[in-house]
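Hallway conversation turned thread

IA: we were arguing at lunch whether anyone had actually written out DER reductase end to end. Turns out nobody had. So, for the record, here is the sequence (195 residues) and right after it the structure tokens. Reply here if something looks off.
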Amino acid sequence: QCPGVELLCLDLADWDAVEAALGAAGPFELLVNNAAVAELQPFLEVTREALGRSLDVNFGAVLHVSQIVARQMIAQGLPGAIVNVSSQASQRALRDHAVYCSTKSALDMLSKVMALELGPHKIRVNTVNPTVVMTDMGRLNWTDPQKSAAMINRIPLGKFAEVDDVVNSILFLLSDKSAMTTGSSLMVDGGFLVS
């Protein structure tokens, strides 16, 4: 239970429903875009359905929800912060992740453009780019010991991220402690990208 937090369960692909619900719920000062899907397929086997769903959730929903919230912030004259949850996969090619890596790379660039255009309105936009996180989705895709060992061996800290590792990074980027940080990607990858 978090006082002042109202949960909205929405189909992010239904833009009209999202717009109506968020329009009635605002104004907002903070936004975290965390919805994502990871439909893993080898490049030569990527289906149109997997591509469309991934683009809709990993990219399109972030763009749309951010537009709605940012417009409200601007109309109210409120400063704000937006954090988009990306991935280390936006920076490094991973086998069977053609669509996931690509949508997360697109999300990183969208976040930079948002930071550029929303900065004059005192709205900061950043990404958090974690390694594998031990969520339900993370466990689903990384429970095979051979697959997980290969990834963990590339992480200098020798483990996957826990949810709190990501949450604490998001809280930092939402807070005034990061008041001069916008257009940045905070890697929460245990050193994966330096290995």
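OS: looked through it. The domain at 15-188 is CATH 3.40.50.720 (Rossmann fold).
IA: good, adding that to the notes. The beta strands are 30-33, 80-85, 123-130, 185-188.
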